[in-house]
Amino acid sequence: MNRITLLIDKLKALGARKLAALGLTFALVVGVVSVAAFYLSRPAFEVLYAGLEREDVSRIGAALKSSGIPFDVNPEGNAVSVPYGQTAQARMLLAERGLPQSANAGYELFDKVGALGLTSFMQEVTRVRALEGELARTIQLIRGVKAARVHIVMPDEGSFRRAKQPPSASVIIRTEGPDDSSAAQAIRHLVASSLPGMTVDQVTVLNTDGMILSSADGEASDAVPVKTLTLEKSIAKDIQDNIRRTLTPYLRLPNFQVSVRARVNTDRRQTNETIFDPDSRVERSIRTVKESAQSQNSGGAQTTSVERNIPQNSAGAAEGKQSTDESKKSEELTNFELSSKTVTTVSGGYNIEHLSVAVLLNRSAFSEPNKEPPKPEAVDRQIKEIEQLVFSAAGLKKERGDTLKVTAVDFMFNEHEMSPVESPGLAAMLGSHLGSTLNALTAVAIAALVVIFGLAPIRNALLAESTPERREPPPLIAEEQLALGSPPNDVVTPPLLAGAGQGLLGNVVDNAKESARTRLEQLIERDDAQAAAIMKQWMQS
Questions:
Q1: Three-class SS of 442-463
Q2: 374, burial (CB in 10 Å: exposed 0-12, middle 13-18, buried 19+)
Q3: Gap between the Cα atoms of 262 and 350, Å rounded
Q4: 282, 418 in Cβ contact below 8 A?
Q5: How far is residue 236 from each of residues 231, 246, 357, 404, measured CA to CA in Å?
Q6: SS3 of 463-527
Q7: Can you say whether residue 395 is alpha, beta or left, with left for phi > 0 and alpha for psi between -120 and 50 degrees?
Q8: Contact call for residues 189 and 200 (beta carbons, < 8 A)
């Protein structure tokens, strides 16, 4: 605080004029250094257009080259840069030639369509192109999708067509990573919801390799292997993560490696089953039929004999045969209604058919530092414990035929891969930052020149005392010379003193001393700085 107070007092002592001059000088120096640093540190190139297609980049490059404007293209090939300050000129030049030409133009297509002479067919084509462009722009906003093209087929309303033709669409995408099937379902729903009358089944999504990612009900022959492979990778990754979380507290992460292979079945299954319960029955109808019949037969024919040929006095009773039949029939029919249950099971998911898990352990992880290696029996016991942990963490099943193999070996670590990457040397760092270093040194040099040749002279001129011109005082008479009786060389002795006696000479010397002391006191009172400078010159001489 004392120093701050002293500094404030000194600044106040300078006066308002000097303080204002110093403030203006400081502002001038800061402004000059800032402007110089801005012009030295600004980039050599600035982005003209980014996110371009390759065709647009080639057209823009040809146009700029023909116009004499230098340009640069980034390593990805989707951005064009021009020298700093020429961006507006380059954009005006490209706008005059209609560049860049976006292939995914949306509703701005209607800005170029004139109402005069436009047929209904051209209006419909322009509408479809606008829808395709807007959908492609929206699809490119999805994370991971770098480019997209959409083709829409609108229904043709025919006069003699019985069945109504639904609209359909196909989408081709280019993604950043190899797994490009994650956004296929989302794209199908987006396109289907954007057009009236379109369903999700009418949208097909492909990738740039020509592989179908998603189609109607997922029945495409090319899409099933991709979905199955993706599902197997996802299951294997989940099982590996579970095993790592289980073994990491037991062993350090570099001391084991896990490999999982899953085989799944994605076939759709439908099972129909009808079950009858004989215990639960209900009488539906009863039918009873009873029949009774009786018949009697008699025959009057006589038998043939000798007596039949002898005349008889009177006819006797005829002899014959008699038979009687009687039958009864009773029939009862009862109809029962049995309870039945029909079960239909449709399985559209997946089924894990087989899992293979291999775990590789580092043998040195079982031994403690600065101790003897463990015995083989102890190592085998720990390996069996690890097998049980892995078996439970992976969810393996013996009846399914899953396999598990755990082996302990000595790991061979690659020292070059495990060692940290060496930092670049001083020459490489200076080479990579050579431009920035030169700009910084130039800014520092400009600031130093401004301070040395601008600030220092102004400060000296402001702080210098505006004193009147001073005349050198007459030299003083040295006491040694007066004591010896001889005046100094630069003091003129009056002629009257040449022949005077010693008494007169003594008075003159005393008077000279007194006058010299008086002049010295007056000089010190009038200007102490000048007196101090004269005394320093005497001391040096």
A1: HHHHHHHHHHHHHHHHHHHHHH
A2: middle
A3: 12
A4: no
A5: 9, 15, 9, 14
A6: HCCCCCCCCCCCCCCCHHHHHHCCCCCCCCCCHHHCCCCHHHHHHHHHHHHHHHHHHHHHHHHHC
A7: left
A8: yes
pTM over 0.70: no
Rounded to the nearest 10 degrees, the angle between the axes of helix 456-463 and helix 16-41 is 180
Question: pLDDT at position 191, please?
Answer: 92
In angstroms, the CA 210 to CA 215 distance is 13
Q: At 81, list the tokens.
A: 């840069």
The contacts of residue 226 (CB under 8 Å, 6+ apart) are 181, 211, 212, 213
Q: What's the alpha-carbon Rg for the chain, to the nearest Å?
A: 59
Half-sphere exposure of 400 (CA within 13 A, CB side): 15
Strands 72-73 and 351-362: unpaired
Beta bridge partners of 271: 345
Residue 410: partners with Cβ closer than 8 Å, 6 or more residues away:
362, 363, 364
Helix, coil or strand: residue 254 = helix
Q: Tens digits of per-residue pLDDT, 466-522? A: 444 444 444 444 444 444 344 444 444 444 334 444 444 455 556 666 777 787 777
How would you label 63-78 residue by residue, b for 16+ Cβ within 10 Å and e otherwise? bbeeeebebeeeeeeb
Tokens of 141: 């906003």
Token reading at 56: 């647009």
Joined together, the tokens standing for residue 194 give 């954007």
pLDDT in tens, 15-39: 787 778 778 878 887 887 777 777 7
Q: In whole angstroms, give the CA distance from residue 67 to residue 190.
A: 43
Angle between helices 223-247 and 376-394 (to 10 degrees): 130
Weakest mean pLDDT among 102-111, 311-320, 405-414, 481-490: 481-490
Residues ≥6 apart with Cβ < 8 Å to 476? 516, 519, 520
Contacts of 368 (CB under 8 A, 6+ apart): none
Question: Residue type at 291?
Answer: E
Q: Which of 363, 410, 357, 367 is nearest to 387 (CA)?
A: 357
Residue 364 contacts residue 301 (beta carbons within 8 Å): no
Cα–Cα distances in Å, from 6 out to 19, 21, 297, 459, 460?
A: 16, 21, 164, 19, 21
Quote the CA–CA distance of 108 and 129 in Å, as a whole number.
10
